[in-house]
Design brief:
Layout (H helix, E strand, L loop, with lengths): L3 E4 L16 E4 L6 E3 L4 E5 L2 E4 L4 E6 L2 H7 L1 E3 L4 E3 L8 E6 L5 E3 L4 E9 L32
Antiparallel strand pairs: 1-5, 2-11, 3-10, 4-9, 6-8, 6-11, 7-9
């Protein structure tokens, strides 16, 4: 699949680092380092603009190494970039560590996965088909206590 992209940054285009990687790294694009205080959040620019085909989305996800080493993650993970969006790709970043973290131009900040999705039509009904799980949620499929 080909996706049209404009790169206004000085960073490389996103690419797959290994043959079987699902995600591609996105990079910070900034003229000046960005310092995030503990619990601080900001919108990080990438300089990228895309034309995603209809029926697909780009999912923006945290990088596990950045989360582990620096406590940096994304607030709306995964973030969705819709096929009809043509603006700059921005990454909503939060610092969950106890220390200030500085982000520099060219630093890997998130990863992006291109995924197919369906467009659905609602069918409003009065009754749903039964299932073995029923309405159990929020941990209901875990190990049961032998006394309950």
């Amino acid at each position: 699949m080909e996706i049209k992209i404009i790169n206004k940054s000085s960073n490389p285009l996103p690419f797959y680092a290994t043959e079987q990687a699902a995600g591609m790294d996105l990079y910070v694009w900034t003229a000046h380092p960005i310092t995030l205080q503990p619990l601080g959040r900001t919108l990080v620019k990438t300089g990228l603009y895309m034309e995603i085909p209809k029926g697909y989305e780009a999912q923006v996800r945290p990088r596990s190494g950045l989360a582990l080493k620096k406590g940096i993650t994304l607030l709306n993970a995964p973030g969705t970039i819709d096929a009809d969006y043509r603006g700059e790709i921005g990454i909503l970043v939060v610092n969950l560590s106890n220390e200030a973290v500085t982000l520099k131009n060219g630093e890997r900040i998130a990863q992006m996965v291109i995924a197919k999705h369906e467009i659905i039509k609602w069918k409003e009904v009065k009754i749903l088909e039964e299932s073995s799980r029923g309405s159990g949620g929020f941990g209901s499929t875990g190990v049961k206590d032998k006394y309950t």
